[in-house]
Amino acid sequence: METKQDELILAIETSCDETAVAVVKNGTEIIANVVSSQIESHKRFGGVVPEVASRHHVEQMTAIIETAMDEAEVSFTDLAAIAVTEGPGLVGALLIGVSAAKAIAFAHDLPLIGVHHIAGHIYANRLVRELQFPLVSLVVSGGHTELVYMEGHGSYEVIGETRDDAVGEAYDKVARTLDLPYPGGPQIDRLAHKGEPTLDLPRAWLEPDSFDFSFSGLKSAVINTLHNARQRGEQIKPEDLAASFQASVIDVLVGKTKRAVEEYQAKQLLVAGGVAANKGLREQLEKTFADNDVDLIIPPLSLCTDNAAMIAAAASIELAKGNYADFRLNGNPGLDLER
Ligand code: KG4
Ligand code: ZN
After folding, report:
1. 135-149 residue pLDDT tens
2. CATH number of the domain that 156 lies in?
3. What is the domain extent for residue 257?
4. Which of 118, 144, 275 to mutate to test the pocket of ligand 1 (most atoms within 8 A of CB)?
5. Residue 175 near residue 169, CB atoms below 8 Å
6. Ligand 1 and 93: CB distance under 6 A
7. Which residue among 91, 137, 228, 264 is least crowded, i.e. fewest CB within 10 A of its CB?
8. Predicted local confidence at residue 49, as pLDDT
9. Using an 8 Å Cβ cutoff, are 109 and 294 in contact?
């Protein structure tokens, strides 16, 4: 049962190809978490088609809000606030969630909170365990690859980021080269576990003191390796190519993360974003930080990929600070995490 002091936030996430609505109690406890995926509609195009995504969000939005409210057994009068992903993401997709959130906030006179999508991914970790500062978060998603330093709640400093492709993007492109269906990340992960990392692929360490990443060279190396072999009429086992690609990605991600954790004396290491669902990455992080003082959190798979519970968890911090949005809130595809 909810008591009067309990803070219930309804959150909406529509930044890409999932229509998601959640109700979260006190920023930490999931009461309902509904995710409607559009993957099947985008598969035949080999990627997300923005216009198709927007249309699906419009069709699904009201029904998903109702489902989440029913599952949570709450009414709008029980809520403390409405939260929504403000950006980054596909502008047309964001707009559907933002419009729905504004309508509910206006109709029920509730505070409105705009959330950065990556802040949401980071706060998925708070649904596992209370955060301890200072912390470092490794963010690995379809659109972002960055190391974020946090001194306290709601404070984000990007200490390193990709200079070209995001890691999820590299996964999806390599998968397409291997004729695997969208989204390619989970497919490569599955193949990698059946193969051996026999191919010598590059690792972009960049300058010795840099926490930045680069994955486009690796992606090109994979594509070239495959094309050259095909031209010579040689066979490369896709399993071995996937394993070699994944080994290179994980080496760099884990290597740089370890250095960041040490340099910033982090008490916690959080992992965030869709690629955090990667089995190889999870295993390597667990191994690397097993004997380390740092407390490693990796959310369960359902909280790694896009969902609205993470948006509610991040919003709870903004609610406590009184950081409300007004009705000028708009979808912002270029929203800055450090603002
Ligand atoms: O965070 P997310 O759900 O959406 C964005 O905010 O981008 O991340 C989606 C990305 C896709 O590129 C997908 O291929 C990748 O996460 N992904 C994975 C795995 N599961 C999802 N990549 C590698 N291994 C996985 N198991
Ligand atoms: Zn995401």
Report:
1. 999 999 999 999 999
2. 3.30.420.40
3. 131-298
4. 275
5. no
6. no
7. 228
8. 84
9. no
